[in-house]
């Protein structure tokens, strides 16, 4: 029996399944190389936002994998998925991990380089 203010995060006992992010648009059109540069900059600095390096590494691997493999990666790393598109996750210690959409998928206004 818990106190009056306590609640369970998922009362039905199910875990959120990872899914592809919804289509999104970057504020300014990007080329593929600019998108890759943004991703590299994020992953290079991500551990400085807090949390554990091994969780950041698992989230990076999951973001670069197909959906079924991404699910296996977050499950085996003990990542708690708040948003099914992986934009907000937690580790077992309660540390929060926020991923920008540009590391998870391509924007709808991506410019194809010729």
TrEMBL record:
Ranges annotated as biased composition (Basic residues): 16-25
Start and end residues of each stretch annotated as Disordered: 1-31
Domain DC-UbP/UBTD2 N-terminal: 16-113
Classification via Pfam families: UBD (PF16455)
Signal peptide positions (record): none
Matching InterPro entries: DC-UbP/UBTD2_N, DC-UbP/UBTD2_N_sf, UBTD1/2
Residue ranges of the TM segments: none
Biased composition (Polar residues): 1-11
Protein's recorded name: DC-UbP/UBTD2 N-terminal domain-containing protein
Protein species of origin: Malus domestica
């Amino acid at each position: 029996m818990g106190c009056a203010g306590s609640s369970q995060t998922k009362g039905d006992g199910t875990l959120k399944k990872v899914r592809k992010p919804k289509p999104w648009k970057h504020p300014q059109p990007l080329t593929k190389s600019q998108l890759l540069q943004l991703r590299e900059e994020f992953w290079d600095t991500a551990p400085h936002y807090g949390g554990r390096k091994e969780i950041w590494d698992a989230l990076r691997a999951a973001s670069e994998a197909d959906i079924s493999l991404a699910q296996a990666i977050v499950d085996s790393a003990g990542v708690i998925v708040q948003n099914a598109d992986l934009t907000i996750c937690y580790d077992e210690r309660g540390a929060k991990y926020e991923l920008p959409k540009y590391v998870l998928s391509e924007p709808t206004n991506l410019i194809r380089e010729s």
